[in-house]
Amino acid sequence: MKKTFQFLGLSFIVVGLAACQSTPQQYNGQVGYRVESQTADSATLAYTLAGRQNQDLDAKKLQRACQKVLGTNKAFKLQILSVNEVANPAAMASDSYGRQIGNSRTSIGLSNTPDLHNGEDYATRQALEARPSTLRIVRYSCS
Asked: Which of 40, 62, 68, 132 is the most exposed place for a label (fewest CB within 10 A)?
């Protein structure tokens, strides 16, 4: 009986985390959707996507954003108006450590120099701060 409750608790946590990952988010400065125009049964949205292109996943994200904006769970007809790629401003932020060499990704720093990040692993910090270099802005209408 105790194992059953543990299993149920764990499954609720997993389902909750999965649901949080798949819900469309309002635009937060990097990714998300913005409502450009809206009527009772249609809307024009701009969705900013980051990461790898996955047509099935992107179509689901666009569909869920329409459902959230229009307030119904029916399947909408999506019409892509435009797709633009823009440079990610978060990826262009300069590092506060090391020396940048021209326009390359190479930076030189002394590993044993005491600084603000001395207690952290350099590679782990770089991996956590990684950002895609481009963002895709998809303008579309759903009806």
From this structure: 40
pLDDT of 9 over the 80 cut: no
Find the DSSP H helices in the chain: 2-22, 55-70, 122-128
Instruction: Output 25 or 126, whichever has higher pLDDT.
Output: 126
Decide: 29 and 133 in contact? Cβ < 8 Å: no
Residue 57 near residue 45, CB atoms below 8 Å: no
- Whether the CB-CB separation of 132 and 91 falls below 8 Å is answered with yes
> Do 125 and 115 meet the contact criterion of CB atoms below 8 Å apart?
no
Return the DSSP state at 116: T
Query: Amino acid identity of 125?
Result: R
Give the whole-angstrom CA distance, residue 48 versus residue 30: 7
Q: How far apart are the first and last CA of the chain?
A: 49
Return the pLDDT at 108.
62
Q: With contact defined as beta carbons under 8 Å apart, do 78 and 63 qualify? A: yes
Q: What is the pTM of this model?
A: 0.60
